[in-house]
Every structure is written in structure tokens, then in C-alpha cells.
Specification:
The complex is a heterodimer. Chain A is α+β, with helices and mostly antiparallel strands. Chain A has 27 helices and 21 strands. The N terminus of chain B is likely disordered. The chains are: A alpha+beta, B mainly alpha.
Chain lengths: 644, 374
């Protein structure tokens, strides 16, 4: 029944088995070869890939650096906020989740649509911020329902808090990073993650790269479904650098209060160190409303406001300097030896030049005035004559020397250059030759001039300190401070205006000052004239003088014309208050104090406030008193140095 | 033909035990013990369901392996056709009463076990063909007339399994059958013809494939085509094996499997897990054991004199090797993911039962090598 194979059959099977065995050997080599390639040659690559699978990092922003005033009081700080994040890949059903959240929070359909769009644009494990500032009630409600809200993460985070709206313009504000931010700000590349706030204006903007800090991260081991298994490591990141400004919050708040209801600016500067003690712009705004995204309604309100609350008028507001330029015009004329200060001119209210009338602000005229009176009573006629002799280019040169026409600080993107007009400028930008009449206007600070209140403050400071160039600063710098170690002693012990050449030389070299004058007597002359303007009868700011010895100050009023008076208006003696608001003059006042040993300069601007003596000087008076009252404290704080 | 007494040969149980092939015995046992650890690791270091049930199965089927080896080869020779037909009936039953899981109808619910008859067919077909070629003379082997029966015996189960659908097992059954036919001496040209026919039919067959099967083939050609879908398995398996390096990540430390990046880690991808935890050396150890088992079965084939025994030993050894090679090639990314378990190591009762069944017959061939058939 069984036909067992013969020998040949067995041999054939054996032969074929041999072939198969050979084939098997090839296959074994193939498999071993592959194992060698994967586990030995490329092992490193696959280990990396395996770790990439295994670990996932969640980045978070550290708290931003604090910004304080000179005394360490916080202007920009951080607060705890309650946030609601969703990790889309952990949510079982995103539609149901949104529906539930809608009932718990006040989410609108519009919110949900934009959230959905965001989910699509990011990785499924990246958290999506549903709300970055929940109330405690909302937050506890979320926590209560947490077990039914898969994928939701209640997060306690930190956000920027601005406690001092008087300094809103200086500090600026932060907000969510925009596409433009990401494109233009190189440093953001490694410093930003979901929910990171970015400085938009003011110091927040300029110091952003240092204030923002270095990202921290949490590294988790995750399984294939993205579920966090355990925390592997945590890097808290590096909180942003703290900054101490030179501002005095008390003065800031005081000045801001004085400006309430007005549109304008107050700047105070240390005339030796260049410290900006106060820089207030009015009206103020609440920068906190930007931190979590400003509501359209509030934004419109800010943008459409007549007085432009978002503009920092101290550095971005540009105004003709008006009569405050007269001090500079006098210095320029004296320095260039073109005018004898003793020269007396008869002011009858106007002069005529090539058939055109040029008026003095005082219709009846000042009568006979010399240069000191010209400054003191702010006689326009006198300075028409000075300007005529001086010429615009020499005046412009002096103005630039004293800090007009370029930014004062380098801490602000929004600071404007202003404009110091000269013949070249007009030719290049307007394409016309300069007229003599324009020189006359320039001599009394009208016409093409564009200056910011801080520039005028710097100009005044550099006149007040005897004519030395200073480097204004708003960020306190420990290293720079050593330079000023003996400053007080120096001011106390040495009368710098006695013309003592040796002392002067010592002064200059010690503090590395650069003098802006040829003859110190010229500066001294202006000091004296300004003293007259505030402290002698008929001086333009006589009404705002302070009589106590230590408060006595010297200042110059200014009225910056918004438009030129017509002859008819002049004849009708139209008063400024009768004009529509937008046509009223800006009121200016610059001063330094105390007169005997000057330490501070101030500039006050009231938009459409009318005359400098009526609107600006009274405010300056109050601020000066405050600043001088705080002076001792400030000196002490300087010695304490480090913030505690 | 069958007498109850014929199960008992004239060798005593003691003699049978003594003539067990120790190399085969211990290498299978070692592989079994390795599989316990691997399974324990897939349960994330817990003595959980898969581990327990795998150990029980191994003990049961390893015993089956020994018990079967005590049966005279003559018994299997006599019963081979019935065994084949029995499994074929089970395959047909699957068509009507089978359990469906992940879109494929493969299992019969036997209450104590979900039996997958297609796995048994891998051995059944070899038995059937070995007997067939034992009986025909070598001069008839290449006659068309004598090719018809083997082809029908091969095609029917393959078609039944393809339509389950289970591409991988169908392919392995076809290979198992083809090996016997080849060893029996069928000329190369018939295989060449068959290949031509296959190549001609393949595109048509592919168009009948389920989308997931199509995508598996396409993804094999270009794994980056769908890194999170079908290519995901290959990619993750390669990452796991590659990251194991020379010595592996250590027992229970395979992050790829522990964190669920590995698909089907206790069945088809068990080698990946083992390779990740024990590295190149571990992989080579397992591969070495499989080579040892294969070599031992071929050696037994060399010992025996009967054509049936020889054909069965050689064919099963070759099929066994092919299963190992296909599984490893698959997890190493050398061939498409076809869904083929790794013999003994993979979780799965039917596969283990079939393998132990085959191994038992081979062992039996050795024990009873001096007993002529009939």
C-alpha cells in the first residue's frame, strides 16, 4: 500500500533541502545585518527618536521683571491670575467641552469660533488659553466641575499688574504678542510661548528683552496618547531682570493730580545727573486693560479721545517752544558776540520789516528794554532784533548743542526728534529759501520749531547747571552712580559760578562733563535774567514765585501758538479763552530750582492752556516745591544705593 | 486502519522519554521561558491577564508537544488526510460561525479557547502533502495529473483564509504547502509558471483587497507616506528596536512599549519589545534559539528514513523558519506588515497549538525513527 520512495527520491529531497538551507542562511544574514544596522550603527538616532516620543515639554513664561521708582516702590509688578487652558488632544470631544464651558463661563459664539481656529493652527498637545484672567468665582466653579471637563486645565499663573497709572506712559504696557512682534523682535524667538505677554510701548517695549525673562519648562514622560505619565524635570526659567527707574512716584502722582482734567505734561530732571525725576503726561490711561487684551469699546474710547491719552506728550508731543527759546537765543547771541546785552531797544508793541508788521505779545509795548528785561518781561521786539542779528543758523546750532532736535532718552521707541529749523533744512525739506521774517519768528520760538517738553526740560537743565552737557537717564545705573559720589560735596563747597577756572576744570574732569559755552558769564547772565523773570515785579512768572529761600526758583514762560493771529483778531483783542479749544495756545513754563544752588529743572506744558504765566507756571511752582521737599530723601536714597 | 493499540508502540514510555531530542526539548522550553518574561513586560511588569494565560497555554501545549511525540509516526501518516479535512471543515465553519474581530472573521469559539483553524492549517497542509508525495513515485511527481491534487489541497484553504480576510496567514499557509511540493521534487518551471500567474493575478487580487490591506502594502513601499497611520507601526517598531542598542534598555524599561507607542506588542510585535529591552544580544539570543530549533528539526529529518517523515520534518522546519523570518522581517521593516505571529513567543493559543503540534510530530519522527510506516 505504501510506496516508500526509493533512494533517488530521498536523495532529491536531501538536495532540495540543502538549497533551502542555503536560502535560510541568506535570510539569517539579512536579519542579523538589519539588527546590526538598527541596534548598533543607527542606535543613537533611534535613541533620540525614542526620547522624542517619550518626553514632551511644556514651556511657560516666568514672571516679568519688576519696574520700580527710585525708592523701590513698584510701578509694574506681577499678580496671580487664574487661567483656563485646554489641551485639545486630551479632550474627548471638543464640541461637548465647549458647550459645557459656555455654560460655566461667559463664552460667546464668537469666542468659540476663534478658539476653534486656534486649535487648528497649533499642535494638539499645546495648551490653548480659553481665558487668561478668570475671576475667583469662575475659577472655583471650573474646579468644581473639573471631573466632567476632560482636557481642561485650571492654571494659576502670573500676569503684569500696573499699580501707578500716573506713570502709565513711561512704563507702557504689555499685551499678547502679535504677528508683527514675532517678525520684528529677534529676541522673542526663544522667549515666547503660549500666553507670553510682550512689551508694546514705553519701557516695557524697550526693556522687553531683559524684562521678559527666560522660559521655564516642565518635561513630562508621555504615552502614545499624549497622556502625561510623570514629571521628569522642571526648569523654573529665569524671571525677568528688575529695573529701578530714576522716577519719584510721589512727584509723579502729585504732578499727575495737578494735570487732572488738562491735557499736558510735566517733566523734572536732575540737572547734574540727568535723572528724570518725573515725566507725567495727561490724561492718563489704565495700562492694565491691555494685559489681557483690550476690549474694542475701551480701545475706541482711548483712540477717539480729544486729548489722546495714549500719547506720551512729554516725549512724543511736539510744540513750538515759544518764549522759552529766548534764553537760548540770548546765550547764542552772547556766545557769538553779535549782541551787547546792555543794548537798549524801544518796544512800542510792534516793528515793521519790509512792510510787514511783527508784533510783541504786549500790545502797548514794553518801552525801553535791555536784554535782561527782554528775557524777564519776554519782550518779543527785543528778540526780533536779537534774531535778526544772530541769524537762524547760529541760533539753530546753539539749540542743537543744548539738546533740541534729537531724542533725550534712548529708552523709548515712541520718542520724537523734534525739529530745529535752519536754512539748509528748509531748502531740503520745503524747497524754498529762508526768509528773514521766519528768523524773527524763530527768535521768539514760533514757526517751524518742534520741541518736546522733555527736550525743553533738558535745555533748561543744561542752562541751569552752568552750561554743561548731561546724559539724561530714566533707568538707575549703579555703575554710573559712582561717578557722582562727591557731587554733593562739590556743589556744597564750591561756588562754581565765581569764574574760578581751576575749580571749573576740576569739575569738568571729575564728572566728565562737556561744556556747551565759550564764556561762563554768558550763562550766568541768563540765570540772572531768569531770576528776574520769576522773582522781580513785571517778570512774566512773578505771580508764581516762591519766596522761601530754599524754594526760590527762576523760570521762563512760553506761549506756543497753534495758529497765527490775524490782524483783525489782534485789533479786536480776542482773548485766548474765547477761541475754540483747538485754536487756543499751548502754555509752557521752564524753570530751575533752587536758584542759588540749582539741582532740578522742570518743564510744564498745558495743551491749549493759553499763556504760560497763567496756566503753566502755577503748576510748576507746586511741583518745584514738592521736588525740593523730597530732595533730602532722594539724596539719602542715593547713598543707600541698593534696593532692599 | 486505526487500531487503538497502534498509538502505543512497542517502545515503553520510559524508552520514549529517554529518546526525546534534548536539544529540541530544551531550546523550545528556553524560548517558552523567555516568552514568559516578554509577556510579563507587555503587562507593564504586572502578573496580569496576558502573562497568566500565556504561561498556562505554554504549559498545556508544551505537554501536548511531548504527548504528540509519543504517537507513532504511522498514526499521523494514517490520519493525515482526515486531519487535513477536519481542519478544512473547521475553516468552513469559521465562515459561518466564526467570531469577528477588527474586521476579520478568523476564530471559532470553543469556550475554553478561541480556535483559529487557519493556524492549524499551516501544519495540516504539510501533513496532507507529505503523505501525498510519500505515496507517489518520483517519476510521477512532475506529471500534470499528479500536480492537480496538491494544488487543490493548497488553494482551497488559502482562498478560505484570504476571504476571512487574513492575508498574512494565507501567505504562510501557501508557503508551507509550496515547501513540501518543492522538496518533493516538483520542477522549478512549475513554480516559475505559478509565479507568472501570481504576478498576473496580483493586481486584480489587490483591487479586491480591503483598504487597510492595500494601505499596508503601499506603506511598506513608502513608510513616510503615513507616519501616524499604517506607517506608524513600522516606524515605532524600528525606533524601539534601534533605541535598544547593544544591550537594551533593561527588563521592564522598554519605554516604547511601556508608553504604548508599540502596536500589538504582545502578539506580532513581541520581538520588538524583547529587542528594545535586551538589545542586540537579546535579539541574537532569540534568533539563535530559532535557528537551533530549525537546525534540530532538519537534523531529525536527516535521521529518519521514510519519505513521509523526511518531508514532514524538512517542510515543517522550513515553514517554522519562514514564520520566524516573516515576523522578524516585518518588525524590522524589511517586509510589509502582514500580521504573522512569532512562533511560541507571541501571545495566541492557536498559533502555539499549531507549532507544538508540528514540533511534536517532528519529535515523534525521531523517537519512532526505527519504526517503518504501515
Amino acid at each position: 500500500m505504501i510506496r516508500s520512495g526509493g533512494e533517488s527520491k530521498i536523495r532529491l529531497i536531501g538536495r532540495r533541502m540543502f538549497i533551502i538551507s542555503a536560502a535560510k542562511a541568506v535570510v539569517v544574514f539579512g536579519i542579523v545585518g538589519r539588527l546590526i544596522s538598527l541596534q548598533i550603527n543607527e542606535s543613537k538616532k533611534y535613541k533620540t527618536l525614542s526620547d522624542k516620543n517619550r518626553f514632551r515639554e511644556w514651556k511657560f513664561s516666568p514672571p516679568r521683571g519688576l519696574i520700580t521708582d527710585y525708592y523701590g516702590k513698584e510701578i509694574a509688578s506681577n499678580k496671580q491670575v487664574y487661567q483656563l487652558h485646554i489641551i485639545p488632544e486630551n479632550a474627548e470631544n471638543i464640541d461637548i467641552l465647549f458647550f459645557r464651558l459656555k455654560n460655566i463661563l461667559n463664552l460667546t459664539e464668537k469666542n468659540i469660533v476663534s478658539l476653534r481656529r486656534k486649535i487648528k493652527s497649533q499642535k494638539p498637545w499645546d495648551p490653548l488659553i480659553v481665558s487668561d484672567n478668570l475671576t475667583w468665582a469662575e475659577f472655583s466653579k471650573i474646579n468644581l466641575f473639573l471631573h466632567e471637563l476632560q482636557g481642561v486645565e485650571p492654571v494659576v499663573s502670573v500676569a503684569r499688574l500696573y499699580t501707578e497709572p500716573s506713570s502709565a506712559h513711561i512704563i507702557g504696557y504689555v499685551s499678547r504678542a502679535s504677528k508683527k512682534d514675532l517678525q520684528t523682535k529677534e529676541y522673542l524667538k526663544n522667549k515666547i510661548t503660549t500666553g507670553t505677554s510682550v512689551g508694546k510701548t514705553g519701557l516695557e517695549n524697550k526693556l522687553d528683552s531683559q524684562v521678559i525673562g527666560d522660559l521655564g519648562f516642565k518635561r513630562y514622560e508621555v504615552n502614545a496618547y499624549g497622556k502625561r505619565i510623570k514629571e521628569i524635570s522642571l526648569d523654573p526659567g529665569k524671571p525677568g531682570k528688575n529695573f529701578r527707574t530714576t522716577l519719584d512716584l510721589e512727584v509723579q502722582n502729585f504732578a499727575s493730580e495737578l494735570l487732572k482734567g488738562k491735557s499736558g505734561s510735566v517733566c523734572v530732571m536732575d540737572i547734574y545727573k540727568g535723572d528724570v525725576v518725573a515725566m507725567v503726561s495727561s490724561p492718563i490711561f489704565d495700562p492694565n486693560q491691555f494685559v489681557h487684551g483690550i476690549k474694542q469699546k475701551n480701545w475706541d474710547k482711548l483712540i477717539k479721545h480729544r486729548d489722546k491719552p495714549l500719547i506720551n506728550k512729554s516725549i512724543s508731543g511736539l510744540y513750538p517752544p515759544g518764549s522759552t527759546i529766548k534764553s537760548l537765543a540770548a546765550i547764542s547771541a552772547l556766545e557769538n558776540d553779535v549782541f551787547n546785552p546792555k543794548k537798549v531797544i524801544h518796544c512800542k508793541g510792534f516793528i515793521e520789516l519790509y512792510g510787514e508788521k511783527y508784533h510783541c505779545w504786549k500790545k502797548k509795548g514794553h518801552g525801553y528794554v535791555d536784554m535782561r528785561d527782554g528775557i524777564k518781561q519776554s519782550c518779543d521786539i527785543y528778540f526780533y532784533e536779537v534774531a535778526k542779528k544772530l541769524g537762524i543758523d547760529r541760533l539753530a546750532e546753539t539749540a542743537e548743542k543744548f539738546g533740541l532736535g534729537r531724542p533725550v532718552l534712548n529708552n523709548f521707541m515712541e520718542e520724537k526728534n523734534g525739529l530745529v529749523p535752519n536754512t539748509k533744512w528748509k531748502k531740503r525739506n520745503i524747497g524754498k529759501n529762508w526768509y528773514l521774517g521766519e528768523t524773527l519768528h524763530a527768535g521768539i520760538g514760533q514757526g517751524y520749531w518742534q520741541t518736546s517738553p522733555l527736550q525743553l526740560c533738558l535745555m533748561t537743565a543744561q542752562i541751569a547747571n552752568g552750561g554743561y552737557k548731561i546724559e539724561p537717564r530714566i533707568i538707575f545705573d549703579e555703575k554710573q552712580e559712582e561717578k557722582f559720589d562727591d557731587l554733593n560735596q562739590f556743589i556744597e563747597n564750591k561756588e562754581i559760578f565765581k569764574g574760578d577756572v581751576v575749580n571749573l576744570f576740576e569739575f569738568i574732569s571729575k564728572f566728565k562733563y562737556k561744556s556747551l559755552f565759550r564764556n561762563p558769564e554768558n550763562i550766568k547772565f541768563v540765570h540772572d535774567a531768569l531770576f528776574g523773570a520769576t522773582n522781580e515785579p513785571r517778570g512774566t512768572s512773578y505771580g508764581s514765585r516762591l519766596t522761601k529761600d530754599k524754594y526760590i526758583f527762576a523760570g521762563k514762560t512760553g506761549t506756543s501758538q497753534v495758529r497765527r493771529f490775524t490782524e483783525r483778531q489782534r485789533e479786536l483783542e480776542i482773548k485766548n479763552e474765547d477761541l475754540p479749544y483747538e485754536q487756543r495756545d499751548h502754555a509752557l513754563f521752564v524753570a530751575f530750582a533752587p536758584y542759588k544752588k540749582p539741582r532740578y529743572s522742570i518743564s510744564v506744558l498745558i495743551e491749549h492752556g493759553g499763556s504760560g504765566s497763567k496756566a503753566a507756571a502755577p503748576i510748576a511752582k507746586k511741583v518745584i516745591k514738592k521736588v525740593l521737599d523730597n530732595h533730602e530723601l532722594r539724596e539719602k536714597q542715593q547713598k543707600l544705593g541698593e534696593l532692599t | 486502519m486505526f487500531k487503538p493499540g497502534s498509538i502505543q508502540s512497542h517502545l515503553s514510555i520510559r524508552e520514549k522519554i529517554l529518546s526525546l531530542d534534548l536539544i529540541l526539548f530544551f531550546s523550545v522550553l528556553t524560548l517558552g521561558i523567555i516568552s514568559f518574561f516578554a509577556m510579563y513586560s507587555t503587562d507593564a511588569g504586572e502578573f496580569a491577564y496576558h502573562t497568566k494565560s500565556h504561561i498556562i497555554r505554554f504549559i498545556v501545549f508544551f505537554t501536548l508537544f511531548i504527548v504528540i511525540s509519543f504517537f507513532k509516526t504511522n498514526f499521523w501518516y494514517n490520519w493525515s488526510i482526515l486531519v487535513y479535512l477536519g481542519i478544512l471543515i473547521l475553516l468552513i465553519l469559521v465562515k459561518y460561525f466564526g467570531l469577528t474581530s477588527s474586521g476579520s472573521q478568523r476564530w471559532l469559539n470553543l469556550y475554553f479557547l478561541n480556535l483559529q483553524p487557519s493556524e492549524l492549517m499551516k501544519v495540516g497542509l504539510i501533513l496532507f502533502l507529505a503523505k501525498y508525495y510519500h505515496r507517489i513515485s518520483s517519476s510521477d511527481v512532475n506529471k500534470i495529473k499528479f500536480l492537480i491534487r496538491p494544488i487543490i489541497a493548497l488553494i482551497i484553504p488559502v482562498i478560505l483564509v484570504i476571504t476571512q480576510p487574513d492575508l498574512g496567514t494565507a501567505f504562510l499557509i501557501a508557503i508551507s504547502g509550496a515547501v513540501v511540493v518543492w522538496l518533493a521534487g516538483v520542477k522549478m518551471k512549475f513554480f516559475a509558471y505559478l509565479s507568472v500567474i501570481f504576478l498576473a493575478v496580483a493586481p486584480i487580487a489587490i483591487s479586491f483587497l480591503k483598504p487597510y490591506q492595500k494601505s499596508r502594502i503601499l506603506t511598506f513601499i513608502d513608510p513616510s507616506r503615513d507616519p501616524l497611520g499604517a506607517g506608524y507601526q513600522i516606524t515605532q517598531s524600528k525606533i524601539a528596536i534601534g533605541s535598544g542598542g547593544l544591550f537594551g534598555k533593561g527588563f521592564l524599561n522598554g519605554s516604547q512599549s511601556y508608553l504604548d507607542y508599540l502596536p500589538e506588542k504582545h502578539t506580532d510585535f513581541i520581538f520588538t519589545l524583547f529587542s528594545e529591552e535586551f538589545g542586540f544580544f537579546g535579539s541574537c539570543l532569540v534568533l539563535g534559539l530559532y535557528i537551533l530549533i530549525t537546525w534540530r528539526m532538519v537534523a531529525i529529518g536527516n535521521m529518519v528514513r521514510e519519505t513521509f517523515s523526511k518531508l514532514f520534518c524538512y517542510s515543517f522546519a522550513t515553514a517554522f523558519f519562514v514564520y520566524v523570518a516573516v515576523n522578524m522581517g516585518m518588525v524590522l521593516g524589511l517586509i510589509p506588515i502582514v500580521g504573522a505571529p512569532l512562533p511560541i513567543l507571541s501571545y495566541g493559543g492557536s498559533s502555539m497549538m499549531a507549532m507544538m503540534f508540528g514540533l511534536g510530530i517532528v519529535m515523534g519522527c525521531k523517537i519512532h525513527r526505527d519504526h517503518p510506516l504501515g
